[in-house]
């Protein structure tokens, strides 16, 4: 028996969580003597009322779509991949190697090459934890999070010792050749008399993310592999009965998950910075967990949740620009949203379920 | 979606009153944050001092992510802030890509370098850290009894090697047989804020015989100074005057007047002269600190020797090698 | 009438979960010193009713009287202090505690354990003598047999001075001999004046031990009768609401060729324990071989090996051809390809993916079949259509392929699994516990399907812990004990007693023990 309608589970629960988080954030802002309405106004204006704001919101959202999808795919196989950060870091390395060391005649070919490189490196980084989980039972949560640290250290080594141009101060690679620069939204949508997305980092990889959404949806709900991934996720004993190899599915699901995380680097490394930076992922791998949870592991939900978090990031930047709300507090606000939508899901769900049961039991129509 | 409508509704009901006083200066700190006890904080102090003295006001922001570098530059430029002062070499690349879009805005990159030929509205402020380091190196050699002095750097980048190289040259100028030990805290930005590692490195250097240590390591340096004070050897601070931290234990501080540079840029306002500005001993952009806290440590002879060298450097009679000019150092190997 | 005061009286108990009315206006009176049976199909509301009585749920309406006194039971503590003890189907014991520690758990006197333990030891000894409830008080629970664990549960209740004992499906996990012993204990308790409520779906037990019986159907109490005045047929009809055939009509089997030959099968589990110790048996076309035994004696492992998802050593021949028992070719897919269908013992954890829709489940295990594919995607429309047909032919209700499997009743879930496996037309069908948790109406249908398949010349290996079921379906019966086949009997030439002894490890003549049987093969 389902306790509440699907629409309530998919929309009402996150919405109420969000409102709770917003209320609590408002209290925090009040407590330091700023105006919550002014803050909200700033966030909305900065993130959604200008095309450049959208350019940032969508740029962040692109990252979150990839990492959110990555967490979702693994989650369907009941693997909790919290190594998105490390996989995206390695994806960045893949992008950089492809862009720096292969001659590309045109950005479109470079995009394909870099995507393959990013996905391959990300997948590779997920392969080892996956294999350890499937064959040795090492818990994937532990291994993936440890691999985040290894990835950071590895990138550090590669950047400082191998990729950093001589004399450069930054631990960063050289700038990629011009032919690999992806078209930004500004180049794609601006006209001379109507400048749009000016200076914003949103680029063509946003559409790559949308394609990834559709692809993941097809994979999970329309292919045999997806059928087997979900079957394993729901019941390993049943999967074994049906002749589905848990080892094979765990490894494949994690490869896909790692590949998706890695693809995030196409957006950050190739699309935005156009060189490989030390900390290009900036926590997007972890935000992906919240995005997947809030999006109910469905690509469409992930897309919506990623947009929301993109808004929060860009809105947070606007707050930092125009108010004296300290940087740490903006992180607190973002964390509150993650906490409510991700971790405290059941806090909202359970009373809501009870409410729905109550509504259903009372006779239909108003009493009077 | 509903949420979006809610937000939009809320926004629509509020009048659009955003906007700042035009031509105020703005200050963008690097990812280390405003209160890093070092470089960014020096800029903040300079800006605050300027604001207090002139009654002016400035806007500042701490960055959270790489993508915000350009964003902050653009938003400040669009809102009419002028000049936009930035700290840290990492800001030079974003400035180079933004500057052309806002020709009327002056950008300042402290410690960074942007080609003035390509971007006429950018002022790059560089410091002759090697010159100041040379002077404190001389003081270290003169104060040392063991003949071994040491250096703790933050992140291993050419800029910090430039400090170390100048320091070593100063030491060797006084005592050619002296040993200079040099250690870097790390290779990532985390090395700027790791006082524990700084303390460990200092202890290791003491065990190798060092009795004066120069820290050019941001927040990490606090651990170096603390340990030196605890272990009874002398230390040398950096950037700001850090003599007061452990009076009588800090030999001197290598001053790098980021605060002065910031305040001057802000004072110049929209009329700021752009180009490349190298601040050395001649311009008082670098130097060594002498105050009540270390007066007992610096004898008149020492002071005379250093002042003599300073004059000669300004006059061009002594040439201190700049590591970043050719990525090599005659006085020390890394 | 001058009735004595009932030990328990429920008046007008109602309880709803959302739109489902689990209990509707239920009233019962149970006299002290009697055994009262409550019988009903799965989901009839028996467990809900008992949970209300034990304080797990709060009734929406109705009253509870204990010994004539109106009593509120908001939680299980209140139930215990009102003198109610409950023995659950799944024991609530701490596995690595001793019997004594389990008994006093939650009923310690004061902060120090020692006095409580000493007192409990005395009480336990007395109870054991009084009721044939002997258990070693210092044994670890994890080392006890299931029957003994159940006794610990009963002791726990008695230690808490329960006058009223509720037992939920107590014989499901017991051998016939253990069940007999349990009934002797219950007899003794009744003689001492305790009141016992026995929840079961086994008509035979009701007839054997209860004084009165209440029948529940769809949340309502349909009848309460004296056991001596009713018959199994009447009770079955009251449970289902229509006439039910309790015995399966079947003609004698016409066994054909040997389809499955199992020789000297060994299996060690991940802890290194040998679960199959040289199992050999064969199965012919057109016969049902019943595999009897108390659960946990290797039947599940045997099914897993034959189904291709456990690895073993030994030899299995299908149609004379050796099949792989480990490695790449030992998969469920490979087994299905050579015509072995498998209705697993545990349909909720193996046979079905409960959150999957009925149509997704209807191809489960066969989902790589080319007819279900369309390019790189699955042909969901074809699978759905296929499932619809299967559900109609197997009378799955509701016949809605888009409903998640978890929303079907146990019987209908089982029908989905059966439809899937039978409609692939396998030569050999492995069936584990085909009617566990299935209501009587569906049992009848499932049994008919199994016999129909046999008559079509298929070979059927039936694993069941229900001896009644084994008897009514099998042509030959093999008994498993401790990973070995204790013997194979012709179904017509054996009886419950002989099989019961074999299930306890004693062969037909009553002299050979298990170890000897193993040596003889």
Automatic annotation (TrEMBL), chain A:
Pfam families xrefs: BPD_transp_2 (PF02653)
TM region(s), chain numbering: 57-75, 87-104, 110-128, 140-160, 200-220, 241-264, 302-323, 329-348
Highest taxon above the source species: Bacteria
Its membrane topology: Multi-pass membrane protein
Keywords of the record: Cell membrane, Membrane, Transmembrane, Transmembrane helix
A GO molecular-function descriptor: transmembrane transporter activity
GO cellular component: plasma membrane
Subcellular location: Cell membrane
Protein name stated in the entry: Nucleoside ABC transporter membrane protein
Species lineage: Bacteria, Pseudomonadati, Pseudomonadota, Alphaproteobacteria, Rhodobacterales
From TrEMBL, chain B:
Chief subcellular location: membrane
Localization, UniProt: Cell membrane
Keywords of this entry: Cell membrane, Lipoprotein, Membrane, Signal
Similarity section: Belongs to the BMP lipoprotein family.
Organism taxonomic ancestry: Bacteria, Pseudomonadati, Pseudomonadota, Alphaproteobacteria, Rhodobacterales
Membrane topology annotation: Lipid-anchor
Signal peptide from the UniProt entry: 1-23
Gene Ontology CC annotation, any one: plasma membrane
Protein name stated in the entry: Nucleoside-binding protein
TrEMBL record, chain C:
Primary residence: membrane
PROSITE patterns: ABC_TRANSPORTER_1 (PS00211), ABC_TRANSPORTER_2 (PS50893)
Keyword entries, A-Z: ATP-binding, Cell membrane, Membrane, Nucleotide-binding, Repeat, Sugar transport, Translocase, Transport
Family matches, as SUPFAM superfamilies: P-loop containing nucleoside triphosphate hydrolases
ABC transporter domain: residues covered: 8-243, 260-507
GO molecular function: ATP binding; ATP hydrolysis activity
Compartments (UniProt record): Cell membrane
Topology with respect to the bilayer: Peripheral membrane protein
Top-level lineage group: Bacteria
This protein's GO CC annotations: plasma membrane
Family the UniProt entry places it in: Belongs to the ABC transporter superfamily.
Name this protein carries in UniProt: Nucleoside ABC transporter ATP-binding protein
């Amino acid at each position: 028996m389902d306790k509440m309608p699907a629409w309530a589970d998919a929309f009402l629960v996150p919405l109420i969580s969000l409102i709770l988080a917003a209320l609590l954030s408002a209290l925090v802002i009040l407590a330091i003597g700023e105006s919550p309405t002014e803050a909200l106004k700033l966030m909305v204006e900065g993130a959604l009322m200008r095309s450049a704001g959208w350019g940032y919101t969508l740029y962040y959202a692109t990252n979150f779509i990839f990492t959110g999808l990555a967490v979702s795919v693994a989650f369907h196989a009941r693997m909790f991949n919290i190594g998105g950060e490390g996989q995206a870091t390695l994806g960045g390395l893949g992008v950089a190697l492809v862009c720096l060391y292969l001659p590309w005649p045109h950005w479109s070919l470079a995009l394909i090459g870099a995507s393959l490189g990013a996905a391959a490196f990300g997948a590779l980084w997920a392969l080892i934890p996956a294999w350890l989980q499937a064959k040795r039972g090492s818990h994937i949560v532990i291994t993936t999070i440890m691999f985040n640290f290894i990835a950071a250290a590895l990138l550090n080594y590669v950047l400082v010792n191998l990729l950093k141009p001589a004399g450069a101060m930054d631990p960063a690679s050289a700038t990629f050749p011009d032919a690999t620069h992806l078209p930004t939204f500004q180049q794609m949508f601006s006209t001379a008399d109507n400048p749009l997305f000016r200076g914003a980092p949103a680029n063509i990889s946003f559409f790559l993310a949308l394609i990834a959404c559709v692809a993941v949806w097809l994979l999970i709900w329309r292919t045999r592999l997806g059928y087997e991934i979900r079957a394993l996720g729901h019941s390993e004993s049943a999967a074994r009965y049906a002749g589905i190899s848990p080892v094979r599915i765990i490894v494949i699901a994690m490869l896909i998950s790692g590949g998706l995380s890695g693809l995030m680097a196409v957006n950050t490394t190739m699309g935005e910075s156009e060189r490989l930076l030390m900390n290009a992922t900036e926590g997007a791998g972890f935000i992906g967990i919240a995005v997947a949870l809030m999006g109910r592991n469905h690509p469409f939900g992930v897309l919506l949740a990623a947009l929301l978090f993109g808004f929060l990031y860009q809105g947070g930047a606007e707050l930092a620009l125009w108010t004296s709300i300290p940087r740490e507090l903006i992180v607190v606000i973002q964390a509150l949203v993650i906490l409510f939508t991700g971790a405290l899901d059941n806090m909202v769900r359970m009373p809501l379920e009870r409410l729905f049961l109550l509504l259903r039991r009372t006779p239909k129509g108003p009493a009077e | 979606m509903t949420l979006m409508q809610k937000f939009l509704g809320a926004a629509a009901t509020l009048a659009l009153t955003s906007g700042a006083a035009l031509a105020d200066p703005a200050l963008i700190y690097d990812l280390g944050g405003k209160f890093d006890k070092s470089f960014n904080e020096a800029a903040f102090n300079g800006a605050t001092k300027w604001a207090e003295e002139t009654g002016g006001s400035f806007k500042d922001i701490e960055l959270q992510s790489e993508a915000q570098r350009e964003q902050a530059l653009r938003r400040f430029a669009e809102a009419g802030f002028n000049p936009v002062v930035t700290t840290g070499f990492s800001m030079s690349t974003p400035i180079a890509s933004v500057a052309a879009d806002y020709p009327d805005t002056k950008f300042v990159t402290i410690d960074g370098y942007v080609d003035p030929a390509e971007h006429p509205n950018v002022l790059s402020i560089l410091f002759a850290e090697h010159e100041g380091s040379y002077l404190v190196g001389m003081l270290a050699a003169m104060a040392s009894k063991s003949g071994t002095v040491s250096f703790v750097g933050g992140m291993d980048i050419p800029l910090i090697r430039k400090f170390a190289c100048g320091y070593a040259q100063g030491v060797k100028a006084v005592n050619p047989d002296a040993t200079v030990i040099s250690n870097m805290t790390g290779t990532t930005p985390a090395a700027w804020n790791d006082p524990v590692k700084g303390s460990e490195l200092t202890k290791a250097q003491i065990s190798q015989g060092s009795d004066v240590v120069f820290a050019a390591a941001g927040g990490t340096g606090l651990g170096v100074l603390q340990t030196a004070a605890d272990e009874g050897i002398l230390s040398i601070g950096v950037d700001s005057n850090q003599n007061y931290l452990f009076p009588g234990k800090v030999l001197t501080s290598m001053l790098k007047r980021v605060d002065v540079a910031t305040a001057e840029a802000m004072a110049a306002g929209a009329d700021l002269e752009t180009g490349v500005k190298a601040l050395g001993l001649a311009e008082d952009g670098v130097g060594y600190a002498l105050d009540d806290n270390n007066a007992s440590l610096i004898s008149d002879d020492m002071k005379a020797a250093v002042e003599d060298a300073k004059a000669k450097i300004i006059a061009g009679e002594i040439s201190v090698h700049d590591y970043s000019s050719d990525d090599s150092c005659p006085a020390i190997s890394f | 009438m001058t009735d004595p005061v009932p030990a328990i009286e429920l008046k007008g108990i109602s309880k709803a979960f959302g739109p489902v009315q689990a209990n509707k206006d239920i009233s019962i009176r149970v006299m002290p010193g009697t055994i009262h049976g409550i019988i009903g199909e799965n989901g009839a509301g028996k467990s809900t009713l008992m949970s209300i009585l034990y304080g797990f749920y709060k009734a929406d309406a109705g009253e509870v009287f204990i010994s004539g006194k109106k009593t509120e039971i908001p939680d299980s503590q209140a139930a215990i202090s009102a003198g109610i003890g409950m023995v659950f189907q799944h024991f609530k014991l701490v596995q690595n505690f001793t019997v004594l520690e389990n008994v006093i758990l939650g009923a310690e006197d004061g902060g120090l354990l020692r006095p409580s333990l000493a007192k409990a030891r005395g009480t336990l000894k007395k109870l054991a003598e009084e009721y044939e409830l002997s258990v070693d008080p210092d044994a670890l629970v994890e080392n006890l047999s299931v029957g003994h664990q159940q006794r610990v549960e009963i002791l726990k209740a008695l230690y808490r001075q329960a006058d009223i004992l509720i037992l939920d499906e107590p014989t499901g996990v017991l051998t016939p001999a253990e069940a007999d012993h349990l009934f002797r204990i219950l007899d003794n308790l009744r003689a001492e004046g305790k009141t016992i409520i026995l929840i079961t779906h086994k008509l035979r037990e009701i007839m054997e031990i209860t004084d009165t019986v209440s029948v529940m159907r769809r949340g309502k109490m349909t009848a309460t009768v004296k056991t001596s005045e009713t018959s199994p047929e009447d009770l079955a009809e009251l449970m289902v609401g229509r006439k039910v055939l309790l015995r399966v009509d079947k003609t004698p089997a016409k066994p054909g060729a040997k389809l499955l030959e199992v020789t000297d099968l060994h299996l060690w589990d991940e802890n290194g324990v040998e679960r199959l110790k040289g199992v050999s048996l064969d199965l012919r076309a057109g016969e049902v071989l019943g595999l009897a035994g108390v659960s946990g004696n290797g039947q599940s492992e045997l099914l897993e090996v034959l189904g291709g998802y456990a690895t073993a050593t030994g030899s299995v021949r299908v149609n004379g051809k050796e099949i792989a028992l480990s490695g790449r070719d030992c998969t469920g897919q490979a087994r299905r390809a050579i015509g072995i269908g498998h209705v697993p013992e545990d349909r909720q954890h193996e046979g079905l993916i409960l959150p999957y829709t009925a149509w997704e489940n209807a191809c489960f295990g066969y989902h790589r079949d080319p007819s279900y594919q369309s390019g790189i995607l699955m042909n969901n429309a074809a699978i759905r259509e296929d499932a619809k047909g299967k559900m109609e032919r197997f009378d799955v209700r509701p016949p809605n392929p888009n409903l998640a499997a978890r929303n079907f009743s146990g019987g209908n879930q089982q029908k989905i699994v059966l439809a899937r496996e039978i409609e692939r037309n396998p030569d050999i069908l492995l069936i584990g516990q085909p009617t566990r948790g299935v209501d009587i109406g569906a049992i009848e249908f499932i049994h008919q399907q199994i016999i129909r398949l046999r008559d079509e010349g298929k070979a059927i290996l039936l694993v069941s812990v229900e001896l009644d079921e084994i008897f009514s379906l099998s042509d030959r019966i093999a008994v498993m004990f401790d990973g070995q086949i204790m013997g194979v009997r012709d179904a017509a030439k054996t009886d419950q007693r002989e099989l019961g002894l074999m299930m306890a490890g004693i062969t037909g003549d009553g002299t050979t023990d298990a170890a000897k049987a193993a040596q003889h093969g």
